[in-house]
């Protein structure tokens, strides 16, 4: 597989073309951002840690019947993935109240949400990823009703699989976001799943072991990511 020109550079990842138009290389960088890019830092080992973490999770999800874009890990910081036509809608599931939900509704952080909530957000950095609903997504052509239904079903399937996986490591899956795209007409999970895009707490102490350590200046960001990985069986190599 020949790596070719850079197609896209996001806040923490870059995408490169290959000699196969249906496959691209996803490169995880050490860059870390918060607050829509207002705060940026480089954290040693982050690219490697997130690449390994993501590969582990994607393999678990695929084994559980969730279609993903992940093909294989190529190096410490790179993975081969399917080239998707991304749907500009993020799906968010919340099992425990935290982050934006607490700010918007004034509920208590840590409150268990039964049943878990499901929200949609438009992928648009300039607008700070505003919350939307199915009607807006359909009206403006961001996704069809059929696509939205499949994305919702897959997002909750991911919740079933990963809540158990993290619970086995004495961890709480607080919330997470997922992005989807189309590959040969099929809805496929894209982007990544790592502590950058979810909240994970220690089940006993409720210590935060995710990107909130960076957002809130708690320190030990990568050490926390590695701790989560070790608890669920990720090998960082």
UniProtKB/TrEMBL annotation:
CDD domains, per the entry: SAICAR_synt_PurC (cd01415)
UniProt gene name: purC
Family: Belongs to the SAICAR synthetase family.
Keyword presence, Protein transport: no
Range of residues in the leader sequence: none
Keywords of the record: ATP-binding, Ligase, Nucleotide-binding, Purine biosynthesis
SAICAR synthetase/ADE2 N-terminal domain segment(s): 7-231
UniProt-listed InterPro entries: SAICAR_synt/ADE2_N, SAICAR_synt_PurC, SAICAR_synth, SAICAR_synthetase, SAICAR_synthetase_CS
Natural source organism: Halomonas alkalicola
Identification of the protein by name: Phosphoribosylaminoimidazole-succinocarboxamide synthase
Pathway(s) it belongs to: Purine metabolism; IMP biosynthesis via de novo pathway; 5-amino-1-(5-phospho-D-ribosyl)imidazole-4-carboxamide from 5-amino-1-(5-phospho-D-ribosyl)imidazole-4-carboxylate: step 1/2
Protein EC: 6.3.2.6
Molecular function in Gene Ontology: phosphoribosylaminoimidazolesuccinocarboxamide synthase activity
EC class (word): ligase
Reactions this protein catalyses: 5-amino-1-(5-phospho-D-ribosyl)imidazole-4-carboxylate + L-aspartate + ATP = (2S)-2-[5-amino-1-(5-phospho-beta-D-ribosyl)imidazole-4-carboxamido]succinate + ADP + phosphate + 2 H(+)
Domain of life: Bacteria
């Amino acid at each position: 597989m020949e790596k070719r020109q850079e197609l896209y550079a996001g806040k923490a990842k870059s995408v490169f073309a290959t000699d196969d138009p249906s496959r691209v290389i996803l490169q995880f960088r050490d860059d870390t951002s918060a607050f829509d890019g207002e705060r940026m830092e480089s954290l040693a080992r982050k690219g490697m840690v997130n690449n390994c973490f993501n590969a582990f999770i994607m393999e678990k999800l695929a084994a559980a019947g969730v279609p993903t874009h992940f093909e294989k890990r190529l190096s410490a910081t790179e993975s081969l993935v399917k080239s998707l036509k991304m749907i500009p809608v993020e799906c968010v599931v919340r099992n425990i109240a935290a982050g934006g939900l607490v700010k918007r509704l004034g509920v208590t952080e840590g409150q268990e949400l039964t049943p878990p909530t499901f929200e949609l957000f438009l992928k648009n950095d300039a607008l700070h990823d505003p919350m939307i609903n199915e009607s807006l997504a359909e009206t403006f052509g961001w996704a069809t009703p059929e696509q939205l239904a499949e994305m919702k079903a897959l997002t909750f399937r991911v919740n079933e699989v990963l809540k158990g996986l993290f619970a086995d490591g004495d961890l709480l899956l607080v919330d997470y976001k997922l992005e989807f795209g189309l590959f040969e007409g099929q809805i496929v999970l894209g982007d990544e799943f790592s502590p950058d895009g979810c909240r994970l707490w220690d089940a006993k102490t409720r210590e935060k072991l995710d990107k909130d350590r960076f957002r809130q200046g708690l320190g030990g960001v990568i050490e926390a990511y590695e701790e989560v990985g070790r608890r669920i069986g990720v090998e960082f190599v």
